[in-house]
Amino acid sequence: MNLQKALIQVWAFMVKNWIIAKRNIFTIFEILFWPVVGFFSVGLLTSFLELDPNKTGFILVGIISMSVIQVCQMDVSYVLLYDLWAKSLKHTFIAPVQPLQLIFGSWLIGVIRSFFVFLLLSVFSGLAFGFDFWRPGIGPLILFLLGLFLTAASVGMSVCILLLLFGYMADLAAWSLSSLMALVCGIYYPVSILPFPLPQIAQAIPLTYFLAYFRSFYGFDEGFKNVLGWGFGLAGLYVVIEVFLFKAVLHRARRTGMLLKLSE
Amino acid sequence: MLAIKAEGIYKTYRSGWRGQRKKDALKGVSLQIEKGEIFGILGPNGAGKTTLLSILCTLLFPDSGRVSILGIDSARNGHQVRQRVNVSSGNANFLWSLTIKENLHFYGMLYGLIGKEREKKVEALIDLFDLNNHRDIPFDELSTGMKQRLSLAKSMINDPEILFLDEPTVGLDPDISIRIREKILALHKEKGMTVLLTTHNMKEAEHLCDRVAFLKAGEILTCGTAEALKRMIRIGDRVTIEYRGIIQEGELLRADGVINFTVSGNRCEIIVDEGEKRLGPIIAMLSQGGAQIERVSLGQTDLEDVFVEFAKSPDRI
User: N or C: which terminus of chain A carries fewer CB neighbours within 10 A?
Assistant: First the structure.
């Protein structure tokens, strides 16, 4: 009975994000306009620079990964942002819900939306730039996407944690955290070219390993040993830590009155 | 059996750099509310009503003190408490683009309602709160009254044993306020739930509440039934006189039994200790002083008068 109750609560957050997303014109921009515009801008730049196919692939893997993470993490962030903007946060937290259900439900809808973005961009990458995203095979692709989705969960949870800590002024994080991560993780370049201490910081971010893993199928050196182990290990660790952090900041928000303040 | 027991609740809000600015919201509030009771918390703006209600419903943690809800320690087992209570606020806010029906389904799911059980519950609440014609309208297109009805409907989604109402009729037209109050009374009668409401509408409190507590500057000044409070404060009766000419205000203030009076245009309201005993001498005195008395009425004081007295002089009790 408790499991059934927990599942229906997870479902509630999926349904909420889905209904709001389908009625919001900006959703179309999020999953179609920005990813597609970004993808073609970068793709055409690689054509102009006359990069060899491997380097074009290197960059396209980066831009597609970035779009997948951005769309997925936005859904996790939206689970609080929608309530924040509607000032209805207290109604969510007066209900007997746990942070894990809230995050998991919104993450699942993010996975669906960002998978659609991935499909779209991978088709475009083949048609427009002759890059076969499916060449590594279904297994590596699933592992790669799973890594991206876990990374997105971690970024989205960071946004939620910041929102509960700092309130409205933290909503900027929903759009800026993933861009900051892209800079450090080598979306368009190998992390080895970054100045100190950025390569060391990159090693603490799971996306670095997932990118290295997937690019290795296109002839690039992984640069690290056991990239998948590190990637999933770090991603899992961050998710677990952030679930506890989320609980802690929620407790703090009940103590400081932030929860009430964000509902007024 | 007690539904709510709060002992020595203190709450201070901190703001600014490292929380240097402090505002004491509650200063040692204690109260006990019986199961099935409708209890009102009255007080002016900034008295700490919403803070107290938020602590009791687990949205806010106190700095110190203990809260027990339905025998459960709310600090340790907030999750259990949340399954058995619910909240409705004035100035209701819900997810903008969700319709009434979708909002109720969403919150139904948060309380673990499944499939047909949830469908049945949502339909029953839509009927109960006359929301049928607006069920598919998004929240941000609803009138204030409709939003308030949705808020009450949502607060009933889990059949709460304790219902917290924060200014349930604030900003509503009088006719809608009356309907909302009737609805609250009907629900209380039907379900037997405990209701705790905050308001600064004295008529509302007098109409709805079995007992009320006066909260001012974070402290409960007094607590009891409306009748008991009126007796306790002994502010007597209200004599209203419409007149022409002049009133000798100095003499009126010195007259036997006069506690206070206000003059507005050709109308004078006098609070006296015993209306029937003082009415004759006062009229005689005013007439002799040059006033032509046109109409006189004698009425009892209401909770609003009690509130005004408490608000200006907390030491009266």
Answer: N
Q: Closest-CA residue in chain B for A3?
A: B112
Query: Within 10 A of A33 (CB to CB), how many other CB atoms are there?
Result: 11
Q: Is B93 on the interface with A (CB under 8 A)?
A: yes
Kindly tell me if the per-residue pLDDT of B316 is higher than 60: no
Residue B22: predicted pLDDT = 87
Measured distance CA(A119)–CA(A114) in Å, rounded: 9
Instruction: State the Cα–Cα distance between residues B15 and B19, nearest whole angstrom.
Output: 5
Is B226 a residue whose pLDDT tops 80? Answer: no
Reported confidence tier of residue B113, pLDDT bands at 50, 70, 90: very high
- Rounded to whole angstroms, what are the CA distances from B139 to A18, A101, B88, B98? 17, 25, 15, 6
DSSP for B272-300, please give it. ES-HHHHHHHHHHHHHHTTEEEEEEEEEE
What percentage of chain A carries pLDDT values higher than 70? 100
ipTM: 0.90
Please state the domain extents for chain B. Answer: 2-90+158-231, 236-300
Q: How many residues does chain A have?
A: 264
Paired tokens of A167: 């309130």
Q: What is the pLDDT of residue B233?
A: 60
Q: Total domain count for chain A?
A: 1
User: CA of B95 to nearest chain A CA: how many angstroms apart?
Assistant: 5
Look at residue B317 in the predicted model and tell me its pLDDT: 42
**What is the reported pLDDT for A70?**
93
Task: Report the topology of domain B236-300.
Answer: Alpha-Beta Plaits (3.30.70)
Residue B184 has pLDDT above 70, yes or no: yes
Write the residue in B82, B102, B106 that is nearest to A96 by C-beta: B82
Fold of B2-90+158-231: Rossmann fold (3.40.50)
Q: Please give, rounded to a whole number of angstroms, the shortest distance from the CA of A32 to a CA of chain B.
A: 21
Domain that holds residue A198: 2-261
Q: Are B59 and A259 within 8 A, CB to CB?
A: yes
- Report the residue from B13, B51, B94 with minimal CB separation from A88: B94
Q: Provide the edge-to-edge strand list for the sheet that holds B258-264.
A: B258-264, B267-272, B237-245, B291-300
Determine which of A88, A250, A251, A259 to mutate to test the interface with B (most B C-beta atoms within 10 Å). A88
- Are A86 and B95 in contact (CB < 8 Å)? yes
> Min CA distance, A148 vs chain B (Å)?
28
Task: For A156-211, write each residue's pLDDT tens digit.
Answer: 999 999 999 998 888 888 888 888 888 898 888 988 898 989 999 999 999 999 99
